[in-house]
Amino acid sequence: MRLSRSLFSGLLFLWPPDTGNTQTTIRADVNLVQLSVRVTDSEGHNVVGLGREAFRIAIDKKDQPITVFNGEDAPVTAGIVIDNSASMGPKREEVIAAALAFARASNTKDQMFVVHFNQRARFALPDNRPFTGSIADLETAISGFDLGGTTALYDAIVLAQSQFRRAAYGRKILLVITDGGDNSSRASLADTLDALVKSEAVVFPIGLFDAADRDQNPSVLAHIADVTGGESFIPDALADTTKICQRIAGDVRRQYTLGFAGAEDGQYHQIEVTAADPKYGKLNVHTRPGYFAVKARGSANRSMTKYSP
């Protein structure tokens, strides 16, 4: 299995600790920057149970006070994006099983949606139900697709991230399962990265590539993951896909949430998060590499040139 690095950040939302109430409180604070952070030890194992005092945030190499801290397993809004192009035929059953394994291993309070794509991208849940937490509904949505056509990967990701405008949770995840590089999107890679960074979604792409496929482009999946703070996977065998999806769900549930007051200059700022605890030795922190600050009304648009591959 080959994989890339990192994990992610959100914006605008806070939620209280779990009290058994399924309602979630949302606070609109346009100056709050929210990071999802995963911590691992020297052997790559997730480290849980750390307190606020274990973390340090530096923005553009200057220490930044942590104003929001939550432990692991806060609920997320998650989209499952599935390639339906003709070449996915032999992989269909394994992909359905893997996507369902991700849903089953996720927090039961997560709100989820499904996007299918070939040369056209579309939502799989009914129009009047943008999200669901029902495994039965997700099974129907995940398995309800016909194979055929080409691969509009970028269009599918852009469509999926648009759903986050309706999300109840600040943490936003996209699981993307595909077996080829994009060959028919209207959106470009730059458009896709721009949309993802603005939505503050983290992407976990899985590339089920065939050795003879001329359209495969694993470096693009790795780049999307790195820019958004996610992690890309290229399984050695199709049968590994379900375990990878379960691992992604577990890693998402073990993330910490750190928040700080963001700048208001409309510029891109580099983020560095470190963690230390004498019980664990050297700790590795996985999060997104930066954020775009809010901008005063009437200012120029933000540039995405930093994210070109």
Describe this entry's structure for a reader.
The protein is α+β, with helices and mostly antiparallel strands and 309 residues long. The protein has helices spanning 92-105, 135-143, 153-162, 189-199, 218-228, 241-253, and strands at residues 2-3, 8-11, 32-40, 55-59, 62-64, 68-70, 77-83, 111-117, 121-123, 172-178, 202-207, 233-234, 256-261, 268-275, 284-286, 290-292. The strands form 4 sheets. Strands 2, 3, 6, 13 and 15 form a 5-stranded antiparallel β-sheet that branches. Strands 9-8-7-10-11 form a 5-stranded mixed β-sheet, with helices on both faces. Helix 1 packs antiparallel against helix 2.
Instruction: Sketch the topology as an H/E string, one letter per element.
Output: EEEEEEEHEEHHEHEHEHEEEE
Number of helices: 6
**Major sheet summary line:** 5 strands, antiparallel
Oligomer: single chain
What fraction of residues sit in β-strands?
25-35%
User: What is the strand tally?
Assistant: 16
Q: What structural class is derived from the secondary structure elements?
A: alpha+beta
End-to-end separation in angstroms reads 23 Å
Q: From the 3D coordinates, which CATH architecture of the largest domain would you assign?
A: 3-Layer(aba) Sandwich
Top-tier CATH class of the largest domain: Alpha Beta
| Mean pLDDT score | 86
Q: Runs with pLDDT <50, length 5+? A: 2-28
CATH H-level superfamily of the largest domain: von Willebrand factor, type A domain
Helicity range = 10-25%
